[in-house]
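Notes from hallway chat w/ T.B., transcribed later so I don't forget. T.B. wanted the structure written out for a chain they're using in a teaching module, and asked if we could keep both sequence and structure tokens in one place. Agreed to drop them here.
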Amino acid sequence: MSETNPAAPAEVAAPHRYTAAVAAEIEARWQDFWDADGTYAAPNPKGDLAGDPELVAKPKKFVMDMFPYPSGAGLHVGHPLGYIATDVFARFQRMTGHNVLHTLGFDAFGLPAEQHAVQTGEHPRVTTEAAISNMKSQLRRLGLGHDKRRSFATIDPDYYKWTQWIFVQIFNSWYDDEAKKARPISELVARFESGERAVPGGRPWDALSATERADVLGEYRLAYASDAPVNWCPGLGTVLANEEVTADGRSERGNFPVFKAKLRQWNMRITAYADRLLDDLNELDWPEAIKLQQRNWIGRSEGARVDFPVDGEAITVFTTRQDTLFGATYMVLAPEHPLVEKFTPATWPEGTHDVWTGGHATPAEAVAAYRAQAASKSDVERQAEAKDKTGVFTGVFATNPVNGEQIPVFIADYVLMGYGTGAIMAVPAHDTRDFAFARAFELPIRCVVEPSDGRGTDTSTWDDAFVSYDAKIVNSHGADVSLDGLGVAEAKARITEWLQSKGIGEGTVNFRLRDWLFSRQRYWGEPFPIVYDEDGIAHSLPESMLPLELPEVEDYSPRTFDPDDADTSPETPLSRNQDWVDVTLDLGDGRGPRPYRRETNTMPNWAGSCWYELRYLDPHNSEKLVDPEIEQYWMGPRAGQPHGGVDLYVGGAEHAVLHLLYARFWSKVLFDLGHISSPEPFHKLFNQGMIQAYVYRDSRGFPVPAAEIEERDGQFFHAGEPVKRELGKMGKSLKNAVTPEAICEEYGADTLRLYEMAMGPLDVSRPWDTRAVVGQYRLLQRLWRNIVDEATGDVTVVDAEPDEATLRALHKAIDGVRHDLEGLRFNTAIAKVTELNNHLTKTGGALARPVAEALVLLIAPLAPHIAEELWRKLGHTDSVVHQDFPVADPQYVVDETVTCVVQVKGKVKARLEVSPAISDDELEKVALADEKVVAALGGAGIRKVIVRAPKLVNIVPA
């Protein structure tokens, strides 16, 4: 079963037939023409890409694909699905009077190239640029209409200069909660200096040392370094963002174990924008599933912050059920909570239950052992509903602020530092997990929400917790506050007011979203534009020192460790280049040349893709991130797009909470600081499906080459041995990849384009079948044959007016294809073109010129090479790319007649062909006069006639 069709269509001897060889010649020639002519150049209103003012004056349309990573393996036929779709849409928009910006760059930093460099010693730039060159060649062969003047790669220093510049803007900014926007950090410093804003801790600003000031500002900066729990992957030698860790606690790349560790890392304060990231989703034209994923990831919840005193400190919890405070009988901290080490006493307090200690002699031993155990689990594993609850007592008690009770403090892995404060008050009577934990550790369970299921308030008889938001509060009264008899909402309001009056809590909003971990211990990434002085204070480089380019190193790999050894820490490749790390610089801050140490981490591979849409607008600007007028033209807010952004963005749904969330954050910061006019990067998002392919596995479960499979009587064999077939991804590792080149050589690029668009709705995954490609090849052959004489090569169209039947078929096709292309329904657009072409083929005779030209224009966005060739053969000297798309004449779109069903006693007795414009009265007369209806009535009188012109008449006899 060869994946390049074993039964390729036989080519007849007609010298001018449309064949694969003819397609190849046509396609190469027109691709060369488009490049030389600059056919797809989209003019800017100003700057070095300014162009035709008439085109600039037209409505604009910015169409984008998600940034591709240039893999060394090259493309298979699944990869171009989205690229072909955006190309079809962009071509259609050009033909409907738009100035279209459609281009493609390359997201070229990343771990695969670095891993190859580690294995071979070859610089990752060499392999990456080779992969980019190969991908460009593959994409060019598909005839994609990209403005190549605007293309770039994230590894270009001229590009990552501005990635570094954006980082500096974020580093030198803070989020003003009152203004609800980012502002320069210098404004915050001025407030501290003037006393307008109190310095945390109460000391005057001028009394603080330089280090103390840096520490204060670090608590406000939108980019900051901190010692925080991270996902440490010894097998990769780097830390990972939460989103790069799989559900089973392993690295997305390499499948190595990931552990919790505390390291000093750079972070982005994306949490400051949580509310805006949520609220602005409402104005975006995105799939609801993606919006829901972002809402869930951000995870907004309203509740209260409550302080529980313990040993001169306070454990702060966030709870959405502050109405149940009187039911809190113990507390739980995440194993990583910073207070755990402060609280652990030398010995167990008197009266400690044996079940609380985990069999350890001291609290320190118990806590250390349990923390090591928890570090080996993923967050998902820790939150999973496990039958056996685990944890240990810390050896200290906290005070419940509403009743003064002393309640034990545990650590347990079902509480995470990544949500809330990393601490919970446990109300076991009304939380299932807390209930199970309390039963396992013999802890009190107090009912404070009256059950409505008849079980009563004696918790000793309960099998599980009672959870309700529509019940009455009981057993909840103290010296100066009582919630008894209140509903949940009333109780929440009262206890929150009481907490605030006592200064031990307040109403607040919490988010699941955590700050974005922004450091990687790798070589192949953007260097941070940060240096540290003798006191360890971080300083950003001035713009004049950007870009800070990657230095040459002898060893590209971060130091890796035993994948299971959690007790390790990063060593980066850049740290081994001492001449680059230790430098003397004059940062222009008035202090003159001073010694500094460079940051030796690099940015994550997400950095370059956070803003690349902006570089497409003004790609050669060396003075600004983007010219404001150009940014406003392409991406500024407008009617129907209140937050601006790209008009159509096509890519995979897998980036819902990674790239899409990060890019939105960067856009909002740049918008707040006045650098751009669009607070959202992408107005309309469309997620394309996946092209799947059959995978064949031998008895060991290993994939075998799909091209070598033999099918006999519905069974599949490889080298004579039976194999199993399953539908899955297409890829080199699964040995089922089909290259675009193979299909282009067999049928031509236009055929491949048509087949991928015709396989099904764009947003649905679909199986690849090489044998079915021939259907679209034959469509193009029939199209060619309708216009070109295969024997002579002459055009066969005639200068005549088409008949009415042909006009109706043509204009219905025009109307349908236009609406389908606008709605990204490319499969149904192709079906309508096919139907029209078949109609013209069956009609016979030469096509009238207006029909032939309209047919070519209809196919042009989908199959541009053959359309250009036929357009030129029809006598035109200008490109088909910028021709007007046909417009349907309404008189021919409406059906000439419609079928009206006539019912007598609810049963169909006649079908009438009538005018679509027939009135109710006229239709009733025609129906009653029909001989079949007269016979069905049999002379009976008529009690009632119900008419729904033009499609239904229902007659009720007397």
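Follow-up for T.B.: The chain has a mean pLDDT of 93. Might be a good example for the class.
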